[in-house]
Amino acid sequence: MSKHQASKGIRSSLIGVAVNIVLAVFKGTAGYVGHSYALIADAIESLSDVVSSLIVAGGLKIASLPRDENHPYGHGKAEPIAATLVGFALVAAATTIAIQSIHEIRTPHYVPAPFTLLVLIAVIVTKEMLFRFVFKVGDSVASTAVKTDAWHHRSDAITSLAVFIGISIALIGGKGYESADDWAALVASVIIVFNAYRLLRPAVEEVMDTAPSTDIITSVRGVATTVPEVMGVEKCFVRKMGFDYFVDIHIWVDGDISVSNGHEVASQVRQAIQDSDKRITDILVHVEPDEQIMQRLQD
Q: Does pTM top 0.70 for this prediction?
């Protein structure tokens, strides 16, 4: 994993930490003064964002460590593991919000103060901008963890939007609609769980070494066949480790060439693949004679 890529992801996560600490205090205070539990729940969501961003930063820091004797493939798995933890943190935050929302719905309370709507507008705009910034970073460095962190910010914006709608209904409806913002928080918790599932799935798949998109596999196979002595590709496996890709490829060559020539062909294939995509860190090339393959197919 490139230290430059990791540092970009860590920087975006730490920016998210700073912004979310300010927003959590801002929303929590406004919710308490303005009698809106939904806004307080939104503050809880921002605090969970702080924890999530710190997890992502830590995961990226570990993932950027060089290979060692105990980790010959590097520490890249720390990145999707961090993304998985962030996904579960989302579920935990949504569960907390849902439980407290149900309690507040059953408990009589005041209608939220009108100024809370202005607070929510500022929060929605801020969180949407933060989402776009962090997601752009995650996309540029191909980091599942950073993208997951970005969607955590988007979930916060969605929660704030739901709360805005709920408080608006409570203010317009007046007496009898006091719990509208609590219902909004409950709906938001469902939305957060849905987003958590969307984030957890790719992270868990990466931890389980699920094959990446067919595009990169097709590209690798195509590049290998551009080497003149390569007669075909029998197998090609690609795995993702953090920001890096590892390739295992089996090529067919003329069975009459020497071992030395076969080694040279393998070196050319390795270099061609690495030049074609800088994300590919290591390539294992297995050379097989074409006669052996044809005989195997006939048998």
A: no
